[in-house]
Amino acid sequence: MNRALRSATTGMAAQQLNIELIANNLSNVNTTGFKKSRAEFQDLMYQNLEIAGSSTPGQTAPEPVEIQVGNGVVPVGTVKQFSQGDVQLTGNDMDIAIVGDGFLQVRKPDDTIAYTRDGQLKVSPDGLLTTSQGLFIFPEITVPGNTDRIQVSRDGKVNVLLAGEIEPQLAGEIELAKFVNPAGLRAIGNNLYVETIASGTPILGKPAELGFAEVIQGQVEASNVDIVEEMVAMIVAQRAYEINSKTIKTVEEMITMANNLQR
Question: How much helix, strand and coil, in percent to the nearest 5, is found in the chain?
Fold first, then answer.
């Protein structure tokens, strides 16, 4: 009985974590460049009540199968799914969409590098390209103050057309980073990720090079959250939580009946 209670309890805890991830996915359905998360679970250790191949007096053959009872479930990880989000037209020259494999690099206040898929760029008072949070794009790209228009090519070249000029000038080039295991990146909020031992070190390259994404000006990458998929997952998680709670209630009733047995 106690084993059943523990198993059902772990099931409820697992579905609670599942619902929390689904809620976060749905809350970020309109977040530019957001990547949805999913939980991964594994069953806990089993208790062998009878081992295959054992035999007792009077048996003509050893037991062909084992009697095993599991002890529930445990979360083993939350995984970001880096599938491509829809590309949405904005018409803003400061917006770029990353289409394919790669991340923009940004410099944090502590001079470490973080990574993002959010291409809603801005220009700082010093003329440097930044994210919406004011973090500088790395390597730095400077836009002159007398710039009339910014042009970003698919291969990451940032050209500026200065006031009174006819020919654009090269202001810098966007450099992308990709990872052998992007699911190993750690999300730190603000659409940013940092590398971990699991993700491996970044592989740097230019947009449109072999294996790297293209950048498209005037568009942004939307969240890859599928509302219908998340709603179905929520219903499944809710029903699983409910049935585990009913299991606990059933076990409690069985214990009560056993305690009330009279000779």
Answer: 25, 35, 45
CA distance 38 to 40: 7
- Write out pLDDT tens, residues 136-182: 999 999 999 899 999 999 999 999 999 888 899 999 999 999 999 99
Task: Report the candidate in 236, 247, 242, 239 with the shortest Cα–Cα distance to residue 6.
Answer: 247
Question: What is the C-alpha separation between 244 and 40, in angstroms, rounded?
Answer: 18
> Starting at the edge strand that comes first in sequence, how are the strands of the sheet with 169-173 ordered?
147-152, 157-162, 169-173
Reported in sequence order, the residue ranges of the chain that DSSP labels E, i.e. its strands, are 37-43, 46-50, 67-70, 73-80, 87-89, 96-99, 103-107, 113-116, 122-123, 129-130, 136-138, 147-152, 157-162, 169-173, 176-178, 186-189, 192-194, 203-205, 214-217, 219-221
Extract the tokens encoding 51: 């081992």
Q: What is the pLDDT of residues 193-247, one digit of tens each?
A: 999 999 999 999 999 998 999 999 999 999 999 999 999 999 999 999 999 999 9
Q: Which long-range contacts (CB under 8 A, 24 or more apart) does 3-8 make?
A: 3/47, 3/69, 3/71, 4/247, 4/251, 5/248, 5/251, 6/71, 6/72, 7/44, 7/70, 7/71, 7/72, 7/73, 7/247, 8/72, 8/244, 8/245, 8/247, 8/248, 8/251
Whole-number Å distance between alpha carbons of 202 and 209: 15
| Tens-place pLDDT, residues 63-110 | 677 888 889 999 999 999 999 999 999 999 999 999 999 999 999 999
Q: For the full predicted model, state whether its pTM sits above 0.85.
A: yes
